[in-house]
Amino acid sequence: MKPPMPASPDELFAYLDSLGIAHRTVSHPPVFTVEEARAWRGAVAGGHTKNLFLRDKKGAVYLVVAQEDAAIELKSLHRLLGASGRFSFGAADLMRETLGVEPGSVTPFAVINDKALRVKVILDAAMMAHDTLNFHPLVNTGTTTVSREGLLKFLEATGHRPRIEAVSAAAA
Known about the structure:
Radius of gyration: 15 Å
CATH architecture: Alpha-Beta Complex
Order of helices and strands: HEHEEEHEHEEEHEE
Oligomer: single chain
């Protein structure tokens, strides 16, 4: 049986609306790195983020969401999170299978597609200090702003209760 089609950005926005989560999206050319995003986003306020799609030795899948300038020590992160062995980056096929997005478009919003609840969501405590946060809306041609509370409400509604952990040190 073929898996369902992943949600589109418009379906994501409709879901946010149904939850009463205010959101604002700015369109821009495709961006694949934090540096490219900085160049295009202009004066979009709030915390800007990066997303690490990781798997442990036993195949458990993690999405670690942190501030764009956060320094994350991957060699020891598995111990902090209680994972089975060191992390490696998840393959593009696994990303498509679990989150329904392409590399370069990873976002916590993609858990809308993880109906099997395979992905563990980890939010960096430093990022959660921001009142508003910015993420791709399932594609890397936009930046969507939501409140910190809106992000948490969205994640809970999808069945992905996030862990908030101090996983980074801000880059110097």
